Amino acid sequence: MIQPVLLWSDALLFVLIAAIVALVFWARRQDALRAAWGRVLKDGMAMAAATVLAVFVLIGLLDSLHYRARLPAQPGAAARYAVEVLSALDALLSDLRQRSEKTYSAPLATHLFAREALENSTQREFPRLKHGGAHLGADLSNHEFDIAVRVSRGCAGGLLVWLLLVSAWCRWRGVAVVEMLKVGACRPAVSTHPGFRFAAGERNPQQTESGTAIRPVFLTLLPILLLFGIAIAVGGGYHVFGTDKVGQDVLYLSLKSIRTGLLIGTLTTLVMLPLAVLLGILAGYVGGWVDDLIQYLYTTLSSIPGVLLIAAAVLMMQVVIDTHPEWFATSAERADARLLALCLILGMTSWTGVARLLRGETLKLRELEFVQAAQAFGVGRFAIMRRHILPNLMHIVLIALVMDFSGLVLAEAVLSYVGVGVDPTTISFGTMINTARMELAREPMVWWSLAAAFSFMFALVLAANLFADAVRDAFDPRASA
Amino acid sequence: MSILEVRDMAIHIREARPVDGVSFDIAAGECFTLLGESGCGKSMTALGLMRLLPAAAQVASGSVSFEGTDLLALPESGMRDIRGGGIGMIFQEPATSLNPVLTVGRQIGEALELHAGLRGAAARARAAELLDLVGIPDPLRRLDEFPFQLSGGLRQRVMIACALAGSPRLLIADEPTTALDVTIQAQVLDLLDELRRKQDMALLLITHDLGVVARMADRIGVMYAGQLVEEAPRAQFFTQPAHPYSVRLFAALPDAERRGGRLATIPGSVPAAEVRHAGCRFADRCSEVMPECRNAPPPWREIAGGQRVRCVLPGAAPAVAAGVGAGDTAAHAETRPLLSVRDLQVHFPIRRGLLQRAVGAVRAVDGMSLQLLPGRTLALVGESGCGKTTAGKAMLQLIRPTAGSVQLDGVELTTRSTHELRPLRAKMQMVFQDPFASLNPRLRIGDIIAEGMQALGTGGMGDSGGVGSDRDTAAKVGPLLEQVGLRADMVSRYPHEFSGGQRQRIAIARALAVHPQLLICDEPTSALDVSVQAQILNLLSDLQRELKLAYLFITHNIAVVDYLAHEVAVMYLGRVVEYGSADEVLRSPRHPYTKALLAAVPRVDGAKSEVPKLAGDMPSPAKPPSGCHFHPRCPLADAACRLSYPGETRFGATQVVRCFKA
């Protein structure tokens, strides 16, 4: 019925996920690692952040299952597939994707945002939307009432799903639902954070025997499920976040942007991190001409204005792509190649800052006595770097990783603004913000594209930051005392 | 008439009680000393008096009255006048207590402007006066210098001058000489003592060093776990300490009489500040503990002559039977040296200019020769910056020597490549000074100890797996831990869970893991408290007896040398100036530098030495003086000393001195 399509970025993303899963299984067998991750699992804030992240990743993964739909079969001819590459998310959101309006409309509106000359009339009026509020018919008096009904229906649905999940979990664990809700209602999720727990001077009773702080997960899931419920109920009849210039639903655009953001954040970091760590430690520990060479390299790289360097590289890459149309079967593949190339270019140009930081820290570490003790044992250079230098740099690497993740999601926006970012057909926060530039200059202002992009990016980056914070704390042996 | 009265002061940091009911008085012009191990709350008490506590800490109860004013009730603005104006304070680390980007004159001027209202030329004149007062030569030039241009001793003098700018009636000195060399320490202590007499200033001295206490104190308060446990005038304290803790502090001091024997140690460590005590705080570590000690805190008990003690034991505590040693351990039968160093030189080039051409060299080690026999201990003594540590690392080839030869068991090391050295590394190991920096905080104890075995292949093979995957190595780690007095089940802990003394034991176990014959110990006890130092020294001498280890003991602590060493080499500016058996060098020193060094050590019996103390600092090894390096500071120097470096003069069987006047 369909033809699966595996884009390069999908493959990389799945490899990445597989690697993480493999790492998790490997870490479960290492006592020290299991203990450290156990501390993460006990940290309420971390678990709440992880829940939000998981939702984002889930959406991103759904959006990475690409396929080409089969066209209606014609007798006698071989099966033919559509040119358009869709994803599982597109299939789920086909309503949102297909119900596009003519142009801008405000969130939950029933009319377009701009007046237009009506047919057979000299008057300029706000035309009715094709889909938003269409079920109301001509009678708009119960517009608000309809929205209220839908919101409460969505809330009820979300709550129901949540209760089902909670009771399923409680049955599996053999815990009374009432007890869980009682404690959960009177104590906020943050009270399981180590600092608060210390102040309270007691252990969180809601931790399971394995010690996982499960209550914050459910407490975070509740608002998420409520929002989902509302979005589904209201989105069935209206455009929750309005529509953009060509009438596309902004909620759909925002959900599609998540995959681009995740990809740019993770793949770029994946390109950048090994370079930065390797070169930074080598420069700091080995010194001499190696240090000179690496320093020369990153001084040169960072003395060229970043945007110029990236723009030059992207434009070159674009020429290559444009002169070889035969490489790509569909436009989606071309856009995907551009996205990957952008990750690569961003990665190659953004390792300098982290490398310099790591070099400085390595210079400090290599003079410490435990490194000299290892030298006195005749431990090899690379073993010292791996056993003694790298683990003591991990907190910096982890902080840099998260900072860069947020920074890169933002950099994509800047580059798209300049016009050298992702392919114009790729939906991303950057392209959304880029279009918002013109929208904000309109009178009256079109604010919803920006607001939607902002709130999604904010949730994503904040969750990533909080989670990384907790991971760093858990892996710092001094802090866990 | 006391100018400071502290009553029942208690400081709380959340659950912890670092100071828990401390009362004492200080009279005008008196030197009161707070003595105790680290973590007893001495510094916290001083900060509490000044109301300079960290944000989390607060004075929970008690009163502090300075010249009749209740300091704890003063508003912050009033307190600022007291700080510096009424009470001055100097800190332990002269390197960090001065602002590196301001000139000395600016920093003293700041205090003068605040407390004396002086500005401009008047302030400058007064600042110069103060520098002169603290014994800094050429004060007008020094006013325009930055802290980095001064040596440690001069910096501490500047710090004292800053504290004196407000003419305080009380000076709080928190370990003022701990970071300084003995010769510089003697200078600074003399200065403090002289200022106190001249200006009739009271001094609250905080220290852990019994020698400094004997040199300075009028009265002594012994602090333990947040409380004073004994208060006594100096004479009584040193002749008849009353509290079992004080008695043990004395017994833990190493000296020549205890050589070969064991030092008395205090089992365990100072209890954490979070612990609540029902009875006596020392009960768990006390050998005279009685049932009533556990039930209620012991009351103050007056002993004659102003001595009082918080202990139920009637009379003074019995002296601890410190094992008097059998003197030298068995005579050495072997004569083939394990380590033989000839004309070792380590020069660090000074590079200047665009092309980084070497324009000179820091001669950290400049031609030193020594020999170490198997199973013996050679102490390398000298002030900081004389090249002791560099020499030790050069012998291990951690720093490649510029010239000279190092032979281990007859094998030349300096010509071997890093790869060729690896099989020899098992024979020589190093124990470092700072137990907090010498263990990788990210590795577990088992991995730390196993590292050497894995790298050198003396345990099982296998590189990365860690302890769990390498049963052979893991099986050896447990006994090693027990050998150094730790429990075998501690393998999976991280270094931060251990105290300083325990960490030093781990560092020793790590070195022992590869069965070395030579252990280079770089000041292994200088970061530790007296009672912990005694534990480590006992461990080292036990290990020497059991395993026939040879130690090269790098230290500046003469008492430790006297206790542990068979031979002593005294270093000055990269060269050995005197070498001989411990008795020869320490009892009948020939070199004027050795004499001055020994004289500068504050003695617990308070006796003062007749030898003149050293003036000035050690010259820079980048520009050593011509002729004998010591001549600018030597009281005996004449024209010949300025011309050429003296050759070796032999006295007796083993003593070698490089001095024309010896």
Percent of residues in helices of chain B comes to 25-40%
Looking at this structure, what is the CATH superfamily of the domain at 2-217 in chain B? P-loop containing nucleotide triphosphate hydrolases
Q: What's the level 1 CATH class of the domain at 256-475 in chain A?
A: Mainly Alpha
The best one-word shape of chain A is globular
Question: CATH topology of the domain at 2-217 in chain B, anyone?
Answer: Rossmann fold
Helical residues, percent of chain A: 55-70%
As a percent range, the share of strand residues of chain B is 15-25%
CATH architecture of the domain at 2-217 in chain B: 3-Layer(aba) Sandwich
Mean pLDDT of chain A: 82
What form of chain B results from the Cα inertia axes? globular
Terminal residue distance of chain A: 58 Å
Largest sheet of chain A: 3 strands, antiparallel
**CATH homolog superfamily of the domain at 256-475 in chain A:** MetI-like
Classify the secondary structure makeup of chain B into a structural class. alpha/beta
* Largest protein interface, residues of each chain: A-B, 24 and 36 residues
- How is the largest sheet of chain A built, in terms of strand order? 1-2-3
Beta-strand percentage range of chain A:
under 5%
CATH class of the domain at 2-217 in chain B: Alpha Beta
